[in-house]
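FAQ: What does a ligand-bound record look like?

Like this one, built around phosphoric acid mono(formamide)ester:
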Amino acid sequence: MKQTDIQFDQNGLLRHFLTIDGLKRNILVDILDTAENFATVGTQQVKKVPLLRGKTIVNLFFESSTRTRTTFELAAKRLSADVLNINIDTSSTSKGESLLDMLRNLEAMHCDMFVVRHHQSGAAHFIAQHVSPHISVINAGDGQHAHPTQAMLDMFTIRRHKKDFTKLRVAIIGDIMHSRVARSEIHALNTLGVPEIRVIAPNTLIPPATDSMGVHVYHDMEQGLKDVDVVMMLRLQHERMQGALLPSEHEYFETYGLTSKKLKLAKADAIVMHPGPINRGVEIESAVADGPQSVILEQVTNGIAIRMAVMSMTLGRQKSPEGNAT
Ligand code: CP
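The answer part, i.e. the structure of the complex:
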């Protein structure tokens, strides 16, 4: 079954959020608009709305995370849900319990949602195929496959600064090959109508299927950055690299690191993005990461609103008495 099919329930409502690949523009816009409504909750005196009161959400992070795990937890709490953070290292999986047995036990506790990060591509999809019908699964990053909520929070950040996706030139720079973020960003940017998506990287960090991804490939920062509206930097994902793909981090920074000088090639009002964690002096200079064009910390803040939107749309699905989706 295609991942886009499994994401919807029998009423055509979003039940799981596993990938952006194949989702229609109206779903992405709906997520962005819903997140816009949640964006001010964090600035209220009482940072809570009652939408998911009584629901139980489980964070299952099999891989390390700072931003994604904590913003999912905050998003759930701001929707008034109860949250369980499972410590995988001290869970019974370390005693040989299988993933599915662990899930069956969590289901027996009447949980409603699993938020899953896993080093294996396809893990969230596998879990979604095996859970009970009332449970929703959100992919919080699987291997080098997809990181859909990261892409959506990045789209939210771009829309707030640039308004119209159909007039933009976007450059994604760095380790495209191993990046689940890049894959999800490219799907989202294409679906939202961005006419020019550039990827800039050495040949060793460009995936083989780039031709079918709807992007223009550049190996030269000077050419690739020229007149872009959005500059998205990526970390070198050493944990997923097999063999030596780069001469050295120093040489990489010289050629592909974003410096104030190189940033001048982009439009004067270009924004600089990075999903984090950032490696200063490897892919980005501190003066740029902390500079006036950087929206890196805004991305983190926006992650809460986007995750609230996705959780409320998937867990808060309702049918009217006539059977029509409300
Ligand atoms: N962007 C992102 O996924 O960051 P974390 O690994 O800290 O969650």
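Follow-up question: can I read anything off the structure? Yes, for example: The chain has twelve helices and nine strands.
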